[in-house]
Write a structure and sequence with these properties.
GO biological process, one term: DNA biosynthetic process
InterPro entries: DNA/RNA_pol_sf (IPR043502), Rev_trsase/Diguanyl_cyclase (IPR043128), RNA-dir_DNA_polymerase (IPR053134), RT_dom (IPR000477)
Strand content: 15-25%
Radius of gyration: 18 Å
Number of helices: 4
Protein name: Reverse transcriptase domain-containing protein
Number of strands: 8
Pfam family, one: RVT_1
Order of helices and strands: EEEHHEEEHEEH
Shape: elongated
């Protein structure tokens, strides 16, 4: 993780315990147990879309593609003054995260705001945290929609999972 720039050695006076969370595919996700930090974090009230809102907007669409954003949270830089707050303690020392990591109280809302800004004006793509749904009325339009979304993601340095 250090070689990939995901975490860096830290000398932070703050730290959270190391925590492993199972992923859908059975692998383990490394993150901090940020309950103490989260308890003093001001909540971000940015809305996460409700499924009923999405289903209403999809009723006239017939072609769909799902795009999964690769390590979505880690594509967001943490503000310099907040990086030390992300420190975790391990048997090998303290490590901090220069990019957003799962487990932080406002990670979902922060990413939702970011992806909405990136996709602003594209009424055929629906973002739900790290999943994007591209919906179109027909195949030809769908190909154009996909190219537009992929270009917008590339222009903003967002990588996707190749599946």
């Amino acid at each position: 993780m250090i070689e990939q720039g995901i975490c860096l050695p830290s000398k932070s006076p703050l730290s959270s315990p190391l925590h492993f969370v199972p992923k859908k595919n059975g692998e383990l996700r490394v993150c901090g147990d940020y309950r103490r930090l989260n308890s003093i974090t001001t909540p971000d009230r940015y809305p996460i879309p409700q499924v009923k809102y999405l289903t209403h907007r999809l009723s006239d669409k017939t072609i769909f593609s799902n795009i999964d954003i690769n390590r979505a949270y880690q594509q967001i830089k943490v503000r310099d003054e907040d990086i030390e707050k992300t420190a975790i303690i391990t048997q090998m020392g303290l490590f901090k995260f220069p990019r957003m990591t799962p487990g932080l109280k406002n990670a979902g809302q922060t990413f939702q705001r970011f992806i909405h800004e990136v996709l602003h004006g594209l009424d055929f793509v629906f973002a739900f945290i790290d999943d994007l749904l591209v919906a179109s009325p027909d195949k030809e339009t769908h190909e154009t929609h996909l190219r537009t979304v992929l270009q917008r993601l590339e222009d903003n340095g967002i990588t996707i999972n190749p599946s």
